[in-house]
């Protein structure tokens, strides 16, 4: 059986009494785009810096193709790195910036010239080789930083919040370029971001960090449809949480009551809760059905606001308990016609698309 390309085993990092990373373990496949996603202070960047060799773990190991990296200093790990700040040499031209890591590795002039041209084509900056970084936009500078990091064909490319300084339109443009370059080069990428949309747009898999540990790892659709913890459910996509009474729970399925006779069966449940206790029901706004008349088990709510968002309508509602529920309906949905603030509506959902957290 072949070993994973990159292995992280039990990484822990302590700063005095503070544990920044606790027992992070994962396997990365060759050519994979894996994103570390989480809020500030969750341990994602610390893990990346340990991979890069900028920091040493308190315990644990990292292996690349079966060989440990921990004894190898950062400048000899042959790992590419792209930061939030482009870290380009301002006194060098674009071509000279891209050539720099090749010259450090004592490549011949012919090899350097050929590789610089190849990298400029890759990031679509042909003809920019004689410009200085100050003469380029932020997005162009980030492309140069990416070209420089890939110039020496590293087996792994690490990217730490590389687009957070860019505006939304430019960020989306560079996301598209990064995805294209990854598909073209098939380099293994580990990418750090706090932006869930960016992670979903770019990644093969996402590792969701929380308080120094990985809460869950999976593809975007897996994390969205089957969150294993409340934190993942809240962090990936939009979600509503309301209280419910846990009537029974077995084999990973729960029966709950929302009051007023609204009982729902066969809802995936996470955590151990005893019958008769309170739990939290998680619903995705786009998976909630809204109707004007009651039909079967449903939850009555009052419309508190209606917001037009282009291709969809956001309906804010409030239950009799005073809990907020957001509903997202496609533009033109029949339930929207004539709907006003203060109207009573009835909400229901597919139990398989909901989750209960105890």
CATH topology annotation of the largest domain: Rossmann fold
CATH class placement of the largest domain: Alpha Beta
Terminal CA distance reads 39 Å
Q: What number of domains?
A: 2
The percentage helix is: 10-25%
The stretches of 5 or more residues where confidence is low (pLDDT under 50) are: none
Q: How would you characterize the largest beta sheet? A: 6 strands, mixed
- Cα-based radius of gyration, to the nearest Å: 25 Å
Element-level helix/strand string: EEEHEEEHHHEHEHEEHHEEEEEEEEEE
Mean pLDDT: 92
CATH superfamily of the largest domain: P-loop containing nucleotide triphosphate hydrolases
Oligomeric form of this entry? single chain
The proportion of residues in beta strands is 35-45%
Pfam family, one: TOBE_2
Keywords: ATP-binding, Nucleotide-binding, Transport
Domain ABC transporter: 6-236
GO molecular function: ATP binding; ATP hydrolysis activity; transmembrane transporter activity
Descriptive overview:
The chain contains 8 helices and 20 strands. Helix 2 crosses helix 3, helix 2 (94-104) packs parallel to helix 4 (138-150) and helix 3 (109-122) packs across helix 4 (138-150). It is 23% helix and 36% strand. It starts with 5 loop residues before the first strand and ends with a strand. It has 358 residues and is α+β, with helices and mostly antiparallel strands. The chain has a 6-stranded mixed sheet with strand order 6-7-8-3-9-10, with helices on both faces. Strands 11-12-13-20-14 form a 5-stranded mixed beta barrel. Strands 15-19-16-17-18 form a 5-stranded antiparallel sheet, with no helix packed on it. It folds into 2 domains: 6-233, Rossmann fold, CATH 3.40.50; 238-357, Nucleic acid-binding proteins (OB fold (Dihydrolipoamide Acetyltransferase, E2P), Beta Barrel). 36% of the residues are buried. Residues 6-236 form the ABC transporter domain. Pfam families: ABC_tran (PF00005), TOBE_2 (PF08402). Keywords: ATP-binding, Nucleotide-binding, Transport.
